[in-house]
Design goal:
There is one protein chain. Helix content is about 30%, strand content about 25%. It has helices at about 1-10, 40-50, 65-75, 90-95, 100-105, 110-115, 135-140, 170-180, 195, 260-265, and strands at about 25, 30, 55-60, 75-80, 120-125, 145-155, 160, 165, 200, 210-215, 225, 230-235, 245-255, 275-280. It starts with a helix and ends with a strand.
């Protein structure tokens, strides 16, 4: 069975070391023995979703009220995926594309992917040249908002571009599991599979061309979340070193239909007051 997995890696141009002592087979699933090393899982993750080169210059579109909140709190808030669960196939698109029916089954209550979505916190970013600038300014910045220019250097957080499914998707994980099933084995379930699903969306939202900053809340691990009355959120301080991600705001760009003076008013007497404001 290890040979099947190794051959699947080679089909995608990735040599893999001898894994015979690293995998465990049960009646229903193939897994690695421990999440501490998880070399196979990490290789799959990095192949499907390569890390963004860092420190990265990325952009966040937002409306004026949110800008004011960011400026006054001096933090970016990462919200859980379950806030956006019905948009773009969050987690479910990955499960469907990889035949992970157990994550979609809701016969015994809430489907597993919905439960997992409550512990995955993210913020949407993009590169400077957006695929559809009108969408970014109109939908995410409400037409009169701003584009924050950010320098981002993640530590424990994940920073990766999204993978949008296409009609002929054949990812490394799909190749592995197709080969395993063909030989009568159960599918491989990588460690941290919820993190994989968090970077995979339906093609219906591919114009967003998103780069995602993600933090996962682990049971028994650190939990820095706060509650805003509707959702938990994970704050990342701006301009302050921390264990998760260093974030600096280097410029604020005003929407073509926005007002420069209104933006300056919203950030006055905050830590962002000295950040250059350009446009419209």
């Amino acid at each position: 069975m290890s040979k099947i997995i190794q051959e699947a890696f080679l089909k995608h141009g990735l040599p893999l070391h001898d894994i015979r002592n690293e995998i465990h087979v049960s009646d229903k699933v193939v897994v690695e023995h421990t999440s501490q090393t998880a070399g196979i899982s990490e290789a799959i993750f990095n192949h499907l979703f390569p890390k963004e080169p860092t420190p990265a210059r990325l952009y966040h579109y937002t409306d004026l009220d949110s800008l004011e909140g960011i400026a006054s709190s001096s933090e970016l808030r990462l919200y859980p995926i379950n806030k956006r669960l019905d948009e773009g196939g969050e987690l479910s698109a990955f499960a469907k594309a990889h035949n992970l029916s157990g994550y979609l089954n809701d016969d015994d209550g809430e489907a597993l992917y919905k439960d997992m979505s409550k512990d995955l916190f993210y913020i949407s970013l993009t590169r400077q040249i957006a695929k559809d600038p009108r969408l970014m300014w109109g939908y995410f910045a409400s037409g009169t908002g701003v584009r924050l220019e950010l320098t981002i250097d993640p530590k424990w957080a994940d920073l990766r571009p999204m993978n949008y499914e296409s009609g002929n998707d054949k990812t490394l994980l799909a190749t592995i599991n197709k080969a395993l099933v063909a030989q009568g084995y159960p599918q491989l379930t990588p460690w941290g599979i919820s993190r994989l699903g968090a970077f995979y969306l339906s093609s219906t939202v591919s114009l967003e061309d998103e780069v995602r900053l993600l933090v996962k809340r682990f049971e028994g691990g650190p939990d820095l979340t706060h509650y805003d009355g509707r959702f938990d959120y994970w704050p990342i301080p701006i301009g302050t070193p921390n264990n998760y991600c260093t974030i600096d705001v280097t410029a604020i760009h005003v929407a073509p239909n926005g007002k420069n003076e209104e933006v300056r008013k919203r950030i006055a007497n905050t830590n962002l007051a000295s950040v250059p404001v350009t446009g419209p």
